[in-house]
Amino acid sequence: MSTLATRHLALRVEFDADTMWVELADGRRLGVPLAYFPRLLRATPAQRNDYVISGGGTGLHWEELDEDILVSALLLGDWDRSSDARRVAFAVRDRKAEE
Questions:
Q1: How far is the C-alpha of 86 from the C-alpha of 22, rounded, in Å?
Q2: HSE on the CB side for 33, CA within 13 Å?
Q3: Is the N or C terminus of the chain more exposed, i.e. has fewer CB atoms within 10 Å?
């Protein structure tokens, strides 16, 4: 018996003020809050745009920022769980709630 493994592959990454947008090979566009990844949130636009799509599209890598993200993890909602990331995410959420 064989199993079919679906590979979710990134084609490109774009950013706006609050969100990382990942265009997938299957046509979907995934939006992920930058607050989930403090290194990306704090990075300059030039640093954010200096990424490499690795593993044939399965990963995203920022050498200067020492950040690696699996596309499959993004789809599962698995983001940076460090205390710093949680603190930043909650601060951004609270700021938006006040607006």
A1: 22
A2: 15
A3: N
Those residues with Cβ within 8 angstroms of residue 98's Cβ, 6 or more apart along the chain or in another chain: none
Three-state SS annotation for the chain: CCCCCCCCCEEEEEECCCEEEEEECCCCEEEEEHHHCHHHHHCCHHHHCCCEEEHHHCEEEECCCCEEEEHHHHHCCCCCCCHHHHHHHHHHHHHHHHC
User: Which pair of tokens denotes residue 7?
Assistant: 């590979």
Domains present along the chain, CATH in parentheses: 10-98 (3.30.2020.40)
Contact status, residue 53 vs residue 62, Cβ threshold 8 Å:
no
- Lookup result for tokens 């990942």: 22
Contact 10, 57 (CB under 8 A): yes
pLDDT tens sequence across 47-75: 999 999 999 999 999 999 999 999 999 99
Entry pTM: 0.76
